[in-house]
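Quick question about two entries, pasted in order.
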Amino acid sequence: MGAGKTTVGQALAAALGRQFADLDALIEQRQGRSIREIFEARGEIEFRRIEREAIAACREMNDTVIALGGGAYIAEANRELLREIGVTIWLDCPLDVCLRRISGDAARPLLRSAAEMQRLYAERRTAYAMADLTIETGERLPEELAAEILTLLPC
């Protein structure tokens, strides 16, 4: 949460001349409710099932940069699907930067406190490190990060 997946994804898509899709937005559109509402009504386990279906549906998207939700890459089944679809990129953003960006955002169902965010950050890093590429974000602009990713992508 707050690493810049959507913003950098949009910049990368523009640089590549490709479409952009946000997985959470696709889920919300398909379900007719917000991510928070899905979590509240159906729980995290059901949300993760819905998320896995949405990832599988991304196989049909060609020439598209897709931003995942923060927990989507944790499940091995999702990582396997994503490896079939394309190149995965971890935007390794310092926790303090993420916290500053998302403070006060009530739309994030797993963000209850800074301590909770720190716990999620620590738990998820191992899975994130399995991405094909890792980009250290720091405070750099999305366009700078997209330019770096372009130099690393296989042609």
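Here is the second entry:
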Amino acid sequence: MIVNMIAEDKTVCVDGYCITGEYDWPESVWAIQWNGTSGEVEYYGDAENVLITDFSAYQSLVDAHASLKAAQLQEIADREAAFDNSITYKTQRREEYPKVGDQLDALFHAGVFPADMATQIQAIKDKYPKP
């Protein structure tokens, strides 16, 4: 697990997946780098950086990152599902409705159009009769 944490940016990156959020940072820590077996803690001010071979003191930040990541991924999945459902709904209706031309022709034959529109349509039908 590769971890990069920057307190000032409120950002934790775990294996390249970075999330900015509210984390419970250790006091005076500016950044933490961890390569899976060792790392370095950088402090604010003139304090010397400290090499580390045990990450357990900072595991709570990775756990918080995992919770935020799970929430983000669930939100994305929910949005994608809602989008897919709207596409399905629209597609299903589109495929089952009669063609628009057939709908308009039915309305014309039912006498639903205003007189001037019916006159225009009838003129076209007379000009180009069905074979």
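Reply: Residues 50 and 86 are 53 Å apart (CA to CA). The radius of gyration is 32 Å. Hope that helps.
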